[in-house]
Amino acid sequence: MDWTAVTVETSNEAVEAVSYILTDSGANGVKIDNAADFANLKPGKYGPYGEIVDPDSLPHRKSGASVTGYFPPKVFIPELMKDIEQRVLQLKQFGLNPEPAKVHSETIDNQDWATVWQRYYHPVRVTSQLTVVPQWENYQPQQAGEKELILDPGMAFGTGTHPTTKLMLQALEIVLRGGESILDVGTGSGVLSIAAKQLGAGDVWAYDIDDVAVKSAQKNIDLNPVAHDVHLGVNNLLDGIHKSVDVVVANILAEIIVPLVPQAMANLKPGGYFLTSGIIKDKFPVVKKAEEDGGFIIDETMRMKDWYGIIAHRPKDE
C-alpha cells in the first residue's frame, strides 16, 4: 500500500514547530525544504553521479519553507489534515508566524522515502567548536578541536541549524568548563545534551514531554558515543525533579519558559546557569522579566535574526 506525504507551507521561523506537529501526528519521517538552508551550502557532491555541483544551480526555494511528513497507509489522512492545519494556525498564540500555513497531501509509491531529504542536509559549523554532521556523511574535521554532533535530521526535533538551537549551543560553549551537571529541558533531538557532553559536561539528564521526541533523542545519542551516559526520560518540564545541578538549559517556547523559571531556580546550585532560548522578539521582554522576578541575574542576552537567548545565573549565597 502507498504512503501519504502531508506538506505544510510555512515560514522559516515556524519550521521546527511544524516539524514537531507532523511527527507528533504520526509521521514516520520529516523532510524540510527551507530557503535558508541553501545559504549554508558550498559546492559539493550533489550531482546524481556524485559530481561536484554549485548549490545555486540546484532547484530550490527562494523564500519560506515547506515541511513534509510521511504517513503510513493505516493513517486516515482527511481527518488528520484538518487537525494539522488547526495546530499550525494555533502557533500564532505562541508568537510564531506559521503563514501561509497551507496544508496539502499527495500519495507516494512505496519507495525508499527515508532518504528523500538527504540532499538537503550537509555538515554545518554552528559554533567555533561544534559542527552538526548528518549521520550518512563521512565528514573530516577541518581544524584541531572541532567536535562533531552526529544527527539523523529525519528526526526533526531540532537539527542544530535553527537560530534558537544555535543560540543555546553557543551559550553552552560560553559557560561550560568541564565536569558540569546539566538538566536539558525539552530535549527534542538531544542535540544540546550531545553538545554538552562534547564540551566536557559530567552528568546530563534530558527530559521531554513527548515520548516520540525522547525516542528520537535516544537514537541520536546512540550515534554519539561521547553521550552514551545521558539520562533520558519523559517529563513535563521539571515537575517532580529535585536535583542540584550546575546548568539548566531549555530551548522551548517562551510561554513554557515562564513556568519553568521557579523550577530551574529550585534545581540549580548557587551560581548555577540558566540558559534559555526559543524566545521570539515580541516575547523577549516577558521572559526576561520573569527570570529577573524569579531571582535570576541576567548575564548576557543573545540574538540571531528574530530569536533571543538568555544566559542567566542563580545568585551565589552570601
From TrEMBL:
This enzyme's EC code(s): 2.1.1.-
Amino-acid positions noted as binding S-adenosyl-L-methionine in the UniProt annotation, renumbered to this chain: 165, 186, 208, 251
Catalytic activity from the UniProt record: L-lysyl-[protein] + 3 S-adenosyl-L-methionine = N(6),N(6),N(6)-trimethyl-L-lysyl-[protein] + 3 S-adenosyl-L-homocysteine + 3 H(+)
Gene3D superfamilies hit by this protein: Vaccinia Virus protein VP39 (3.40.50.150)
UniProt keywords, alphabetically: Cytoplasm, Methyltransferase, Ribonucleoprotein, Ribosomal protein, S-adenosyl-L-methionine, Transferase
One record GO biological process: methylation
Group of enzyme by EC: transferase
GO molecular function, one term: protein-lysine N-methyltransferase activity
Origin: domain of life: Bacteria
Pfam families named in the record: PrmA
InterPro entries: Ribosomal_L11_MeTrfase_PrmA (IPR050078), Ribosomal_PrmA_MeTrfase (IPR004498), SAM-dependent_MTases_sf (IPR029063)
CDD domains documented for this protein: AdoMet_MTases
GO cellular component, one term: cytoplasm
Localization in the cell: Cytoplasm
Family note: Belongs to the methyltransferase superfamily. PrmA family.
Function, as annotated: Methylates ribosomal protein L11.
UniProt protein name: Ribosomal protein L11 methyltransferase
